[in-house]
Amino acid sequence: MKKVLTIAGSDCSGGAGIQADLKTMMAHKVYGMSAITSLTAQNTTGVYGISDVTPDFLANELECIFDDIFPDAVKIGMVSNSELIRTIADKLKKYKPKNIVLDPVMVSTSGSRLLEEEASASLINILMPLADIITPNIPEAEVLSSMKISKAEEMVEAAKVISDKLDGRTAVLVKGGHDLNTANDLLYCDERAVWFEGERINNDNTHGTGCTLSSAIACNLAMENDMASAVENAKKYISGALKDGLNLGKGSGPLNHAFWLDINR
Ligand SMILES: Nc1ncnc2c1ncn2[C@@H]1O[C@H](COP(=O)(O)OP(=O)(O)O)[C@@H](O)[C@H]1O
Ligand SMILES: Cc1ncc(COP(=O)(O)O)c(N)n1
């Protein structure tokens, strides 16, 4: 059985963070593990509290996992401060896992900062170069490329700028969920731009879409798919979960991961 590790924050309401990641892993029939970076008190309406674990505790979690059940892929999500970012980078350099997917979580769908302002530079300079793929949404890609993105060509341009900053070694997937007309994602990998077209689904319940997509990519890489196939399959997963139309909570609700179990029974 393939094994996948998520290093991310906990969302007590189950829509995003490690809860979304573990649900995605279960649906992909891989063995899921989680190193928690932060506890969040949040629901579909907002984030009401954040309590980071200490760097020593995160180091302990990562040692426990890597020394015992070595993952075939690693997904990294919310890591709110520089010390935690450095802790993860140290362990990745020590254990050298393959298939690292980094979702540069900066701001939640509900508008709360999940990355301290001073930590952006550490995320970019210390953690991103260790990743095989990073998955910014449009606002995150704007920050990373220092560009404004208002059309498809600018998604390609921004992905190239980000890729160059990472010496071209890391694939860049600019997600199009924040474009109000389409839902096309752009993969820039090995100096080639590939579009993954998605039908725009009329569903405001998008809490956890980024977490879910990056975990699904990690699962697919663990299952030995190449990068483009991993993104293509992950895109099918997220589209299906959105289309299912689950509607929970008073705000932007979570996805239904169980749909995948039904269609793959
Ligand atoms: N309304 C939608 N219809 C179809 N796909 C969507 C929709 N919203 C988001 N997606 C897809 O969900 C994934 C996550 O994208 P996005 O919402 O941009 O990321 P984030 O959750 O990090 O903000 C992408 O594959 C994107 O295309
Ligand atoms: C613990 C945690 N990690 C990540 C997100 C971002 O998810 P989204 O942008 O889909 O709200 C979140 N809200 N909470």
From TrEMBL:
The gene is thiD. It is an enzyme of class 2 (transferase). Belongs to the ThiD family. GO terms for molecular function: hydroxymethylpyrimidine kinase activity; phosphomethylpyrimidine kinase activity. Its EC number is 2.7.1.49, 2.7.4.7. Keywords: Kinase, Thiamine biosynthesis, Transferase. Transmembrane segments: none annotated. SUPFAM superfamilies: Ribokinase-like. The keyword Kinase applies. Residues 11-256 form the Pyridoxamine kinase/Phosphomethylpyrimidine kinase domain. Pfam families: Phos_pyr_kin. This is Hydroxymethylpyrimidine/phosphomethylpyrimidine kinase. PANTHER family: HYDROXYMETHYLPYRIMIDINE_PHOSPHOMETHYLPYRIMIDINE KINASE THI20-RELATED, PHOSPHOMETHYLPYRIMIDINE KINASE. InterPro entries: HMP/HMP-P_kinase_dom, PM/HMP-P_kinase-1, Ribokinase-like. It catalyses: 4-amino-5-hydroxymethyl-2-methylpyrimidine + ATP = 4-amino-2-methyl-5-(phosphooxymethyl)pyrimidine + ADP + H(+); 4-amino-2-methyl-5-(phosphooxymethyl)pyrimidine + ATP = 4-amino-2-methyl-5-(diphosphooxymethyl)pyrimidine + ADP. Pathway: Cofactor biosynthesis; thiamine diphosphate biosynthesis; 4-amino-2-methyl-5-diphosphomethylpyrimidine from 5-amino-1-(5-phospho-D-ribosyl)imidazole: step 3/3; Cofactor biosynthesis; thiamine diphosphate biosynthesis; 4-amino-2-methyl-5-diphosphomethylpyrimidine from 5-amino-1-(5-phospho-D-ribosyl)imidazole: step 2/3.
